[in-house]
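Anyone able to model this chain together with zinc ion?
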Amino acid sequence: MIERLLADYKGIDKGPLLIVIAGLHGNEMAGVDAVETLSQMLVDEGQKDPSFRYHGRFIGIAGNIPALSSGKRMIDLDLNRIWLDDRQSIINSTEFQEMNSIQKLIHSSVIDHPINESIFIMDLHTTSSPRGIFAVCTNSPNSKKITGELHCPVITNMTEQLRGSMIQYYMDHTIEGRKITSFAFEGGQHDDENSISRLIAGMVNCMRSIGAVLPQNVESRHDIVLQEYATGLPKFCKITYIHKIENANLWKMNPGYYGFQIVKKDEIVAKYDGKDVAIPHDALLLMPLYQDTGKEGFFLVNEE
Ligand SMILES: [Zn+2]
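re: yes, here you go
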């Protein structure tokens, strides 16, 4: 059984609260493994190196536990599309219960943290296609700044395009008057074992950016592992097209596509219900769908 609270590491020194959510999508177990591994790494580092000091608190929270336990993206609803103010229509769903439980834990962690310290929420994901390591920021300048320091492209308008994401919810809502900086990080393909190292590297980079760990305590491998795919890619990108689909069972992406691949106008990249699907304009391809659940066949991005 996966526990809701995956990690709770408190530094000796005062500092920010970093809350990391893993597995809002149940077929994305890499995030859960990454949070648990990093939590143990912090404990080990503290014992091994007496000069290592963590500033603040790191909390890891599991997302959709029933879906994670069955290896499915969701049970009834997509847990990263339902963070809206009006929740009347979804109260009978599994994901409504999950969302409430996550929200309660976030709430209590925030109000327990010293009032003058900053609060961050990082949401970890993986994708069905290879490569495509990127971050997603909200409209907040702080969110853009922190994601901009990760060694990967940042999608700046995704939360405007996908309604009901958790990070947008915490951009729009304070907790007892306290502002939260939220962002997401995609670490690569679901079952690629390197995705776990990339998710760890993303969290470590973030801990450095927010001042939870000192730069001299961060090993360079955490930078290298992210730089691997980022070379030559734009820093900030905007989504310029989303290919929405009704039924993922009718979707068949042509083989061999990956994240941030260059695609040209009129290129045929998939079939839907037996018909060819063409690219509407020159762009970089993002998250081509290679699984039978999801509402987007692919995204296109262009440099901001
Ligand atoms: Zn996901």
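The helical segments are 30-48, 65-70, 94-112, 141-148, 158-161, 166-172, 194-209, 221-230.
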